[in-house]
Amino acid sequence: NGIPAPLFFVSPGQINFQVPERTMIGPATIIIRNSFGNVSLARLNLAPVSPGVFTRLANGKGAPAAVASTDNGQTYALSMSNADGSPVEVQVGHIAVFFGTGLRFQSGALSATAAGIALTPAYAGVQGQLVGLDQINLIIPETLRGKGETELIFLFDGRNANAIRIKVR
Predict the structure, then answer these.
(1) Bridge-partner residues for 134, per DSSP?
(2) How does pLDDT run across 107-159, given as a tens digit for each residue?
(3) Phi/psi of residue 80, nearest 5 degrees
(4) Do 111 and 104 meet the contact criterion of CB atoms below 8 Å apart?
(5) d(CA 33, CA 159)
(6) What's the mean per-residue pLDDT of the chain?
(7) Torsion angle, CA of 61/52/98/25, rounded to 10 degrees?
(8) CB under 8 Å to 9, separation ≥6 — which residues?
């Protein structure tokens, strides 16, 4: 809608950009102009919250692009995913830090579900070091002990993020 957007990544099949903060909620037209002057248009509807959790294989499926620690985030001991996109086993009490986007303006109405068990994230908001990056902190609760590999879904202001896979010892 006439507001320049900073680009993070451009390839023949994908463009990652930051939605400028002063962009209005609602219908928007994205105008893409390459160095040769070719123009493409995309229309979309901007919402205050449109959560997505990053995954290891960058396709929105499988294990998360996340880390887990045992000491309140002071040391990130392990990645929560293997190179093939399968989840790495975490333990009860680990603090899992998931990365994503589109959730920083959530009102605080947030929850999660894994193995049919309701969970409450400890934090969800701005990551603080990288532009446009959000994070979700979740202490792996006793109620997930022994559940093995299961689906985890975060809910922000009534909107589901993509389902991811975690594995709990």
Answers:
(1) 100, 126
(2) 988 999 999 999 999 999 999 999 889 999 999 999 999 999 999 999 999 99
(3) -90, 15
(4) no
(5) 32
(6) 92
(7) 180
(8) 15, 16
**Strand partners for 155:** 111, 160
Q: Which residues face 165 on adjacent strands?
A: 151
The C-alpha atoms of residue 61 and residue 77 are separated, in whole angstroms, by: 23
Is residue 69 pLDDT above 90, yes or no? no
Q: pTM higher than 0.85, yes or no?
A: yes
Question: Which CATH architecture does the domain made up of 52-168 adopt?
Answer: Sandwich (2.60)
Q: In the numeric block, which tokens belong to residue 2? A: 């006439």
| 44-to-21, 25, 31, 48, 144 alpha-carbon distances in Å | 16, 10, 11, 13, 38
Q: Which two tokens stand for residue 40?
A: 């493409």
Amino acid at 153: I
Q: Provide DSSP, 103-140.
A: -TT--S-EEEEETTEEE--SEEEE-SSSTT-EEEEEE-
- 3-state secondary structure (DSSP) of residue 86: coil
CA distances to 50, 52, 164 from 161, in Å: 8, 5, 9
Domain regions of the chain by residue span: 7-46, 52-168
